[in-house]
Amino acid sequence: MNVPLKEAVATSKVLVVGSGGIGCEVLKNLALSGFKDIEIIDLDTIDVSNLNRQFLFRKEHVGKPKAVVARESILSYNPDINIKAYHDSITSQDYGLNFFKRFNIVLNALDNRAARNHVNRMCLAADVPLIESGTSGYSGQVELIKKGVTQCYECQPKPPQKTFPGCTIRNTPSEPVHCIVWAKHLFNQLFGEDDPDQDVSPDTEDPEAKIEGQEHTETESGNIKRASTRQWTQEIKYDPAQLFNKFFKNDIEYLLKMENLWKTRKPPVPLTWEQAASHEGDTAEEENNVKSQDMKVWSLSKCTKIFADTVGVLKEELAGKTFLVWDKDDKPAMDFVTACANIRAHIFTISTKSRFEIKSIAGNIIPAIATANAMIAGLVVLHAFRVLLQDYQKCPSIYLRQKSIHSKFVLAADKQIEQANPKCYVCSPQPFVNVFVNTQTMTVKEFETELLKKSLNMVAPDAILDGKGMVVISSEEGETEVNNDKKLNEIGIVDGSILKCDDFLQNYELTVAINHYEPQEKDDPLYKVVANPDELKAKESINGEKNGSEEKKEEESDEDDLMIVNELEDPQEGSSKRRKLNPPEDKDAEDDDLCVVES
Ligand SMILES: Nc1ncnc2c1ncn2[C@@H]1O[C@H](COP(=O)(O)OP(=O)(O)OP(=O)(O)O)[C@@H](O)[C@H]1O
Ligand SMILES: [Zn+2]
């Protein structure tokens, strides 16, 4: 390691987000390469299934917070490191802009898109370089995200995570996976947390099923009864025969009445409890099968028996609890899903599957590979070295992939760093405004009127709380009125929050960073805005016309309460400068950068 790098490593402050498979490896690499100031955050506790690859954790740590144990293990390698652990979600409002600004670099080691999007946006706003990474089985990727230099995590649309339309699941399954998803939904309807999106009964709103001229009527089997499925199940005391006949006979008969669905498809065949229990068709084949129990495809009669048995066991498990959580590793829960998925597959003439196959589909299982995590974590820290020396151009994305006949390389790098997408909603240059408000006393309505409209020249603002994706102010009447009288902090707008604001009536977007501020002296303004005043207006619209805000400026502002400070000034020094500048007689040459809104 050369001297400048050694120094940079020893003096930099690093945040590691996530201490799972990649995070443990990254932490070990950081500790062994001389980093002295590390913070680590993870929301989870240690599960026994983590131990095969998350080597900072041992059996005795199961159930303890990952971040806390990771810190202790790292300190046992090197007690001289200053390392702080947070057992929390990075998306919590406690980790706002000012939290991120404290770091020289952020290293993501996460496993979900929502948290990655959040950290991406915070790092862009705080202008802190972020190294993003991930693995999936034997594949992986490392990518640098640096404001103004590279593309961001959200520059390119990501393929949607695979979901199936509700009507395919409820009305017209055609593949085993559709039956497996339905069976998981059935588990939740009977034993799990109520989720209206997981209805299992026939979908009468299916556009394909609609008969022209016939309005939808509320029917026994259709959407309307949905809410009472659990109640009915309790009333019949989880009687397996009645449950079976509802889901596999009555509901199927109901589906058959939606004749449009079966014009081009093979119609399902309703199945009664008695028929299924005494079904003989494939028993002999099963008996002859030498494979292990998990690899066998159960016969229909066996599925029916297991359905009845597991309903009994799960009913007992539910007693005294509000709901059960489906888990692929919970035997009765997995057996129930296997049985139900195969019974439904039988009804729709879809191929049935072994418990093993159904488990891997139902659990979305892609095995985590320790060596893939280790390679990616090594590359993350090598990228971090270059970033600390500001060698950004030497940090193109690197991909880990399985060796194939097409390529003998396991690691492949892009030729150069990817430029940002100029149309990216998240990172395209957008006026950035720092506002200083008392988040504990200002109401949402006051914020909208005083800040967004009067100070920032918006006419019909929509404001989204970044990271949470929550619309806090809407130009649509009635949509966010409930927020009006709430204090900003009551709806999660706190120091370090970021609001994406868009004007419905003008071509005008702003990113607003919130800073909590309490006036200290009598003549301190109630709030302040730090921005480039030229940016605080609508862009010309497509046809070249200006709109809205010019006139508005004329009529507004009898304010002593507000000042707009040019962003070239240090906002933290605002109050001393303000005192100097507010009274007209104090104005001197230095003040040219400042713009005070006058009445
Ligand atoms: N919002 C978040 N804030 C903090 N940590 C998070 C957040 N979301 C996910 N994580 C953490 O990121 C880590 C990702 O690690 P990994 O992909 O190895 O997942 P895992 O849950 O440990 O393992 P697996 O999913 O394979 O069972 C997890 O420890 C998880 O708790
Ligand atoms: Zn972007």
From TrEMBL:
Primary location group: nucleus
Highest taxon in the source lineage: Eukaryota
Pathway: Protein modification; protein sumoylation
InterPro entries: ThiF/MoeB/HesA, ThiF_NAD_FAD-bd, UAE_UbL_dom, Ub-E1_IAD_1, Ub_act_enz_dom_a_sf, Uba2, UBA_E1_SCCH, Ubiquitin-activating_enz
Keyword Plastid included in the entry's annotation: no
Keywords tagged on the record: ATP-binding, Metal-binding, Nucleotide-binding, Nucleus, Transferase, Ubl conjugation pathway, Zinc
Compartmental location: Nucleus
Keyword Zinc: yes
Record's compositionally biased regions (Basic and acidic residues): 207-219, 538-555
Domain Ubiquitin-activating enzyme SCCH: from-to ranges: 319-359
Residues engaged in binding ATP: 18-23, 42, 50-53, 66, 89-90, 111-116
Domain Ubiquitin/SUMO-activating enzyme ubiquitin-like positions: 435-520
CDD domains according to UniProt: Uba2_SUMO (cd01489)
Amino acids binding Zn(2+): 152, 155, 424, 427
Residues annotated as catalytic: 167 (glycyl thioester intermediate)
Residue ranges constituting the THIF-type NAD/FAD binding fold domain according to the UniProt record: 7-424
A biological-process GO annotation: protein sumoylation
Residue spans of biased composition, Acidic residues class: 193-206, 556-572, 587-599
Family indicated by similarity: Belongs to the ubiquitin-activating E1 family.
Assembly description: Heterodimer.
Name of the protein this chain belongs to: SUMO-activating enzyme subunit
